[in-house]
Amino acid sequence: MTNSSLPLRIGVGAIVLNQHDKVLVGKRKDNPIDKWQMPQGGVDKDEDLYSAMRRELYEETSIKSFKCIREIEKWLTYELPENLKGKIWKGKFRGQKQKWYILRFTGDDKEINVKTKNPEFIDWKWIKIEELPQSIVDFKKKVYEDLVEEINKTID
Q1: Full-prediction pTM beyond 0.90?
Q2: For the chain: N or C, fewer Cβ within 10 A?
Q3: Which residues contact 91 (CB under 8 A, 6 or more apart)?
Q4: What are 36-83's pLDDT values in tens digits?
Q5: Are strands 95-105 and 76-79 parallel, antiparallel or unpaired?
Q6: What is the CATH number of the domain that holds 57?
Q7: Long-range contacts of the stretch 51-54 (C-beta < 8 A, 24+)
Q8: How many domains, the chain?
Q9: Domain range spanning residue 109?
Q10: How far apart (Å, rounded) are the C-alpha atoms in residues 17 and 20?
């Protein structure tokens, strides 16, 4: 199977906003250069999208205290760069098709813990919404630009 004929992995993402409308991002363990991303991950077989998002959010950040503001209607996709195709996700996917949720964090910052059972992040922080596209790796930049638009439509 050539890289271009590989399917897209189905994934979910969580846009976690604090009371000051800043967004939670984590620094990836496997790519600790100065790039940060929002919690996201794959959907397990027979798992609904909302449950997958809740599970991924908890597995990556320990967050349980949130209310869902809204599900972003459209699916957002990205393609892996050629040098990562065949390496990430055991080489089974060429990129990801994601369903994103905008959440309001209702807990205290002490609840956030990235030192989880299988940590994906080595650190976390709150950033301004408009900083999202500069925080992420280049191949996900368009997704994050689209998400900034969706967040701004939601909280304005």
Answers
A1: yes
A2: C
A3: 6, 85
A4: 999 999 999 999 999 999 999 999 999 999 999 999 999 999 999 998
A5: antiparallel
A6: 3.90.79.10
A7: 52/12, 53/12, 53/13, 53/14, 53/99, 53/101
A8: 1
A9: 3-155
A10: 8
Give the integer Cα–Cα distance in Å for 26 and 14: 12
- Using CA atoms, how far apart are residues 1 and 6, in angstroms rounded to an integer? 7
Contact 78, 140 (CB under 8 A): yes
Whole-angstrom Cα distance, residue 52 to residue 98? 11
pLDDT digits (tens, 9 = 90+) for 93-142: 999 999 999 999 999 999 999 999 999 999 999 999 999 999 999 999 99
| Tokens, residue 53 | 């998002």
Q: Which residue has tokens 């892996």? A: 80
Structure tokens of 100? 């994103």
| The pair of three-digit structure tokens given for residue 92, joined into one six-digit string | 């089974």
Q: In sequence order, what are the residues at sequence separation of 6 or more whose Cβ sits closer than 8 angstroms to the Cβ of residue 20?
A: 126
